[in-house]
Automatic annotation (TrEMBL):
<dbReference type="InterPro" id="IPR001932">
    <property type="entry name" value="PPM-type_phosphatase-like_dom"/>
</dbReference>
<dbReference type="Pfam" id="PF07228">
    <property type="entry name" value="SpoIIE"/>
</dbReference>
<feature type="domain" description="PPM-type phosphatase">
    <location>
        <begin position="8"/>
        <end position="288"/>
    </location>
</feature>
<dbReference type="GO" id="GO:0004722">
    <property type="term" value="F:protein serine/threonine phosphatase activity"/>
</dbReference>
<protein>
    <submittedName>
        <fullName>Putative serine/threonine protein phosphatase</fullName>
        <ecNumber>3.1.3.16</ecNumber>
    </submittedName>
</protein>
<keyword id="KW-0378">Hydrolase</keyword>
<dbReference type="InterPro" id="IPR036457">
    <property type="entry name" value="PPM-type-like_dom_sf"/>
</dbReference>
<dbReference type="InterPro" id="IPR015655">
    <property type="entry name" value="PP2C"/>
</dbReference>
Amino acid sequence: MTVPLTIRSGGVTDRGLRRETNEDALIVTDTMCAVADGMGGHEAGEVASALCVSTLGASELFTLEDFRDYRIVEPEPSSDVARFRATIDRQLKLDPEIPHEVIEAVRRVRSVLWEADHAIQAECGTRAGTTVTGAWLVQIEGVWLWLVFNVGDSRTYQLTGPGVGQPVTEQTGPVGVNQLTVDHSEVQYLVSIGQLTPAQALVHPRRNVITRALGTGQIWEPDVVVLPAVPGQRLLMCSDGLTGELSPAHIARVLHSVQHPKEAADVLVQAALRTGGRDNVTLVVADVLTADDPRANTSSIPRVR
């Protein structure tokens, strides 16, 4: 019998020290967490990110007992989208550990993101857009999985090494974070083809130029990563206001040492502010627990500053 799993999470968003407004937003539910980073100038980016997370939070996909009961609302895809979906189908079918029904779940995640894209364009025209990254905890054919999605350069990481608060030994290996998502940005493309090193990308003048976003009327195709969900896992979803200020090693140390996800989120935001706080900073830390764990159902509502 499969042991039921749940999420304990904590999030926080902060305007930072140099921005006049906070164009980031986040959503935390019982099964899904996400972070959005808006763009488009005064108020428009704030509207785009808010519409994105409200669409995700209101979607019945993440609350239905059987996700297949969610009706896909996206219209028939273009030839480019059809090729993209065919690529996802092939990738998932190549992994024998991934249930066949995951393909249907991925299609439904894409449909919800289409709803968000459509809502932003209806409200803002093409004057605003937003990145988004998130993770959905779902049981498919008796297997608990994370479906991690992203559009743009907001990121999702997984803590690696010993569990939260566990001692570091030769057997456990060092503490670290594994970036599960790939940035949709100009500099990431240049890194992928060997024209920039990761270190050069950090200081490149076009490092903030993204190549996919929701709501802009341009390319918005999501990437979806599927990985097993097990008790003790810790994921981090964040805007680039965090990763632009803190190194992966610093992030990993905090995620490993601070046990409650909300407290870990607060510590990371304060660290980002101390190192400059040049952008809005938003993040969600999510832990996987068994449903009968006494720590379950203690997710924290974020503070907005």
